[in-house]
Amino acid sequence: MTADRSRPMDLPLVTMFGGFALTGLVTVLLGPALPGMSERWHIADSQAGLLFAAQFFGTTLTSIVTPWRVRLSLVAGYALVAAGMATLAFAGYAVAIAAFALLGMGLGLSLTATNLLVGSTDADRRGRLLTRANFFWAVGAVVCPPLIGLAERLQQMRPLLLFLAVMLAFVSVRLLPLLRMKEAEPNVSADAEQHQTGKQAEPPIYFFLIFAVILFLYVGTENSIGGWITEYSHRFLGIPAARASLAALTFWLMLVASRGIASELLRKVSEAAILLPATMLAAAGTLLLLLRHGTAVVFVAVAVAGLGCGPVFPLLTSRLFARSGSSRHVGWVFAACGCGGAILPWTMGLVSTGTGSLRTAFAVPLAALAMILLFILSGSRHGRAASET
Fold first, then answer.
1. How far apart are CA 43 and CA 56, in angstroms?
2. What CATH code is carried by the domain that includes residue 210?
3. Which of 153, 169, 266, 325 has the fewest beta carbons under 10 Å from its own?
4. Averaged over 79-96, what is the pLDDT?
5. In-domain check, residue 115
6. pLDDT digits over 128-160, tens only?
7. Cβ of 47: how many Cβ atoms within 10 Å?
8. 3-class SS string, 214-232
9. Ramachandran angles phi, psi of 182, nearest 5°
10. Are the CB atoms for 119 and 3 separated by under 8 Å?
11. Structural domain contains residue 383
């Protein structure tokens, strides 16, 4: 079976990228909203961590099945996210767990399907298009903190959530024509098709396992920093809950800026030339958050972490698609992303409750970034050794 590779002109990129921006907003919504929710519902960090876990375990479940029906998953995913937002608008803590699980299921479908469709484009455009798609996701993430902060100050959170639900439902309807297009048969590497007319075996299973671990660690790191930094600023810097979202805004703003820069740099430099320095920068910013310091240093640390995190996910997924194409194994690799997004922020909540220090809990994403660096350095050494033989 041959994969029906997508071309950029075949896809409704304006709607897909616009929808991706909305998913970025929804994905990070819990972080900026957490201080207000914690005060209203009187919940501990360990209970707040369950909300992260519910969302990203939902993402894990649906990411696995997405490669089997990519376009249907895209349309259904936005519908589920819309339903989750509408439910959250009327939720208390117990119902919010179910609402975030529903959101996560929809995000697992829509995010994975978008990455699969964009990742199956021509090899020479794949890295730039994936970086651009994730740039729009990050734009939504940037808009989220000030929007949530404004809604909290005006006490208009419910109308905001219902408005977002309507917008997401609109995207789902706009993508319905995709269902009339033939589904790809995702079994063969896209790059292999470009060079051969026959079938080519997929990469060995350990290849997918390695990427599953790396993406588990990265998505968990991104969601840990972006998810907890608002509460961190509120608690340790004494910033009011409605304004503490400025720290999350700084993180996502630098993340989106670095993805935009990386998208242009990739015209001139290789993906490898960006990936390693970016990961090191993210680790340096996270390390700063573990140290005692004032407001200015916190915002510098958050900015550095965001700047480093920006290019990492799209460059890793570009490497994944370069070898695997549209393999169905990609589904459980993206499921590992959702699992990391659930487990690492939840672990931070448990560490914070156990040690009595949210600052100490930032050792969790720092350890994850250190492991990613080890994988990248190991892969670079193996690549050089292979090229010399």
1. 19
2. 1.20.1250.20
3. 153
4. 93
5. yes
6. 777 777 788 888 988 888 898 889 888 899 999
7. 16
8. HHHHHHHHHHHHHHHHHHH
9. -70, 130
10. no
11. no
What average pLDDT does the segment 232-239 reach?
80
Measure the CA–CA gap between 356 and 365, rounded to whole angstroms.
18
* DSSP state for residue 181 in the 8-state scheme: S
pTM equals 0.71
Give tens-digit pLDDT for 337-377.
778 877 898 899 889 988 988 889 999 999 999 999 998 88
**pLDDT for position 280:** 95
Among candidate residues 150, 166, 60, the one with its CA nearest the CA of residue 105: 60
Which residues have a Cβ under 8 Å from the Cβ of 357 and sit 6 or more positions away?
none
CA separation for the pair 213, 215 (Å, rounded)? 6
pLDDT value for 269: 83
CA gap 218, 310 in Å, rounded: 11
* Residue 312, SS3 per DSSP: helix
Indicate the SS3 state at residue 357.
Answer: coil
Please count the structural domains in the chain.
1
CB 246, CB 270: distance < 8 Å? no
CA angle 242, 248, 249 (to 5 degrees): 90
User: 388: buried, middle or exposed (CB in 10 Å: 19+, 13-18, 0-12)?
Assistant: exposed
Which SS3 state, helix, strand or coil, does residue 92 take?
coil
Task: Say how many C-beta atoms besides its own lie within 10 A of residue 288's C-beta.
Answer: 18
**Per the structure block, which two tokens stand in for 349?**
């909540």
One-letter identity of residue 90: F
Would you say residue 133 lies in a domain?
A: yes
In a domain? residue 314: yes
User: What DSSP element (H or E) covers 376?
Assistant: helix 363-388
Output the CA–CA distances (angstroms, integers) from residue 31 to 70, 116, 276, in the order listed.
29, 27, 27
Among 377, 62, 375, residue whose Cα is nearest residue 221: 375
For residue 42, which amino acid is it? H
For residue 124, give both structure tokens: 């020479």
What residue numbers bound the domain in which 116 lies? 8-178+188-378
Torsion of CA 138, 142, 148, 149, to 10 degrees: 160
| Residue entry with tokens 């479940």 | 61
